[in-house]
Amino acid sequence: MTQPVLELRRLRAGYGHRRILNDISLSVEAGEIVALLGRNGAGKSTTLLAIAGFIADVEGEILLDGRPLTGPAHQRARAGTGLVIKGRSLFGSLSVADNLRLCDLAPAALLDIFPELEPRLGVAAGQLSGGEQQMVAVARALLRRPRVVLLDELTFGLSPAMARRVVDAVVSQSRNEGIAVLAVEQHIHIAERIATHAAIVADGEVKLHLRRDELLARAHEVEAIYLGHALDV
């Protein structure tokens, strides 16, 4: 049996006295994309932040290639995690090229994933469109060759055409480079396009694990979880 790149075992986390995650257990293998689906407040983004080392109050196990993933965020990044959060985390006053150089990445490498950004390399990142900024943020994470990339609402605020472009790039890089991806998503149709599997989250717990082909077939169960209904599954 293949060892997962990322494995969460009964992950619990919160902020101060407020518990957000109660029992998150899942795994992601190399070249696999797992979508975390659920309504706002379900604990999806908190799961990513706990993995990446941005939450101190964490219990349970986080394993990367079978070894405990611990320590502050910068140590976890060096261990092989990449994170793309909403807001893209680019330095708006710096050029696209300089944003990449800060991560010891060659600007030309960006063009292997998004060649259409060549005319934008010298432009300040803050002057890019939202879709272009997301391209840069996603490429920056992928080009570091992490073991796992954590994506928080990959297509948030993007036009349908730009969303397809970014999604296709992530799927291609994951397959070709064997990168494991854990992607927070709210929309089932996006998850069905990008994911090999999905974990449906509610009240800080994984309520349902589904293959991609099951997402639409069992849409009523997924909808029930979104709406907070009890399930008999």
TrEMBL record:
Keyword Ribonucleoprotein in annotation: no
InterPro entries linked to this entry: AAA+_ATPase, ABC_transporter-like_ATP-bd, ABC_transporter-like_CS, BCAA_Transport_ATP-bd_LivF, P-loop_NTPase
SUPFAM superfamilies (alphabetical): P-loop containing nucleoside triphosphate hydrolases
A single GO molecular function term of this UniProt record: ATP hydrolysis activity
Example GO biological process: L-amino acid transport
Swiss-Prot/TrEMBL keywords: Amino-acid transport, ATP-binding, Cell inner membrane, Cell membrane, Membrane, Nucleotide-binding, Transport
Residues annotated as domain ABC transporter: 6-228
SMART domains (UniProt xref): AAA
Family: Belongs to the ABC transporter superfamily.
Name of this chain's protein: Amino acid/amide ABC transporter ATP-binding protein 2, HAAT family
